[in-house]
Structure formats: C-alpha cells, structure tokens
C-alpha cells in the first residue's frame, strides 16, 4: 500500500528514535517499528489512513514495546514506566540525538554511517550493503556489532555538549551528506530529512560555519530537483536544465547564508562552487578558482576531476583535457573526457568515448544519458 510505504519513508526515524529514547533498547525499537508498519499494512486498507499516520505508528509501536516489556522479567517495572509515561519535551529532536549516538567516535566510520542509514533513515540492510559494496550478511553483522558496542560502552543517547560536540561534528556532517546524496539520487524524502536535520543542527550550533555551509550546499543542490530529469526520468545535464524551474526561494536562502558565513572548511568551498551555477549562466571562472582552493584542502581524485571540468569550461576544453586525472576503469573520467573532446571539435573521438563510458556504466539513467550524447554526435 502506497500510504504505508510513504509513512515508512517519512516516519521511520521518528518512531525508532522515540522508542530508543523511552526504552533504551535499539533492537526492541526497530522490531516494534516494523511491527507497527505491518499492522498499518493490515488495517489501513480496511479502516482508512489515519489523519496523523506518524502519531498512529508511534502509538502502535509503543504499545507493542509495552507488551513485550510486560512479558520480560528483567527491569519490568522500570521499563514499563518509561514507556507509559510521556517524557518531557525539549528543543532537541529525537532523531538528532539518534544521529549523534550513531556517530559516536567509539564506532568505526563505516559502522557509524551504516547504523545511521539503517536506524535513522530506515534504509534496508540490503540497500546499505550495496552502497558499501559488501554482502547483506556482512552488513548485518556490522550493524549488529555497532549496536552491541553502543550498549556495552553505555554510549549516552543525547546530543553532546562542550568540546565533545565539536569533536563529534565532522562525523555527523558526513552522515547528513550521505543521507542527502541518497535523496538527491532519487529518494527525495531523504534529501528533505537531511535538510531538516541540518537546519536544526545549524540552530543548535550557530557559530559553526561548516554546518551553515552544508545547509547552503543542500539548498542549492535541492533547488534543481524538478529540472534534473526529463519526462522519461532520464538525467538532464546542468547546462541543459530549464533554470526557470529551479527553486529560487531555496537559492536565495542559501546565498544569504553564505554572505554571513566565513570560509573555514571544505563544505564552505563546496557550497560556493554550487552557488557559482545559480545565475542565468554558470560562472565557470569563479568555480574554477574555488576548485583550485578545494584541491588544496581536499586533494582527492573526484575533486581533481571536477577541477578539470571547471577549467575546461572556463579556459577551453584542451586545458581541461590536460588536467584530467589518470584513473583506470572509472567511467566518469571517460565521460568527462568525451564531453571536453566534443567541445574541442572532435565529434568522432567524442562519440567513441561516450559509448565506452556507457559500456562501463551500469544500466540506468546515467548510461542512457551517455548513449544519448553519443547519438547526438
């Protein structure tokens, strides 16, 4: 049922976070959240979708947790009271507390990201395993070990304060970035959730430029969501998008954030690169300068590839071709080489490169876009 699937996407993190807060049991929280969705799948087609699907699911999940706790012998009274008594509300969102818990430095980085994607975003273990290029059983063990480590180390379920907050922040930002990218590639709800949580974090840490910069970056990228695909669902390159369909309110908010935010880290540079595209035409010379700075701060192959693109558009395709990093079996490099070769006036070479990049790319919108460029030539 579509309504249940939508409720899963929108409310999974809220249900799990609430149950973890009131019971302290991660496994029980996830199991009862899943049970609540199963009850919804049974009842909603018959009784209708409730006016507040998220509240309905939280209530059902909490009742399920209470039933299981009543059957348990250990700490029965304490846990039952925790579930039955509505906890006092404060300004800290349960899901934000959950993210900070998932991103505790006691956990390996991959475990932090995987646990957050599973527990906060509600992605399936199979989807997370594919993202990490491991088998599903391997990812299941990784997530299980992370939960056990949280329990054994008695990691507190709260947003840290003082110096600990600054120490934990990069891990949280990395998780939010991953959540947004997942939404940017198709699951819009995840992108919306990443923006919501980042906005909340910016309110919690108003002096942190990287938090504000990340929010600005998300707003600019998300502003193009309605123009990124055509009627068939195929990707539309940035230079061919209908810019009148971009969300100008989101862009204006992002630019206002950047005006008052100093440049103190890579997210600030990424945000200014994204902002270079928001005009009637992309400001490639400014973008190239920002990429030069980013390459000094974050000297990765992907940054060097994008830097080559920027310089190719700013100063001519031959300049970009000279700057391309040498990476074997990386279709994106081949695709960039094809685009710059086409702009250099060598269509036959470009057509061959586009087809080679398509052959190296899994079937999907990206591959269709590459084949379409080859056909145009």
UniProtKB/TrEMBL annotation:
Domain RNA polymerase sigma factor 70 region 4 type: 99-150
Ranges of residues in domain RNA polymerase sigma-70 region: 10-72
Alphabetized GO MF terms: DNA binding; sigma factor activity
Superkingdom of source: Bacteria
Domain DUF6596 positions: 168-259
Segments passing through the bilayer: none
Keyword terms of this UniProt record: Sigma factor, Transcription, Transcription regulation
Biased composition (Basic and acidic residues): 364-377
Family annotation (InterPro entries): DUF6596, RNA_pol_sigma-70_dom, RNA_pol_sigma70_r2, RNA_pol_sigma70_r4_t2, RNA_pol_sigma_r2, RNA_pol_sigma_r3/r4-like, WH-like_DNA-bd_sf
SUPFAM superfamilies xrefs: Sigma2 domain of RNA polymerase sigma factors, Sigma3 and sigma4 domains of RNA polymerase sigma factors
Region entry Disordered, spans: 358-377
Pfam families per UniProt: DUF6596 (PF20239), Sigma70_r2 (PF04542), Sigma70_r4_2 (PF08281)
An individual GO BP term: DNA-templated transcription initiation
Family statement drawn from the similarity comment of this UniProt entry: Belongs to the sigma-70 factor family. ECF subfamily.
Protein name: RNA polymerase sigma-70 factor (ECF subfamily)
Lineage: Bacteria, Bacillati, Actinomycetota, Actinomycetes, Micromonosporales
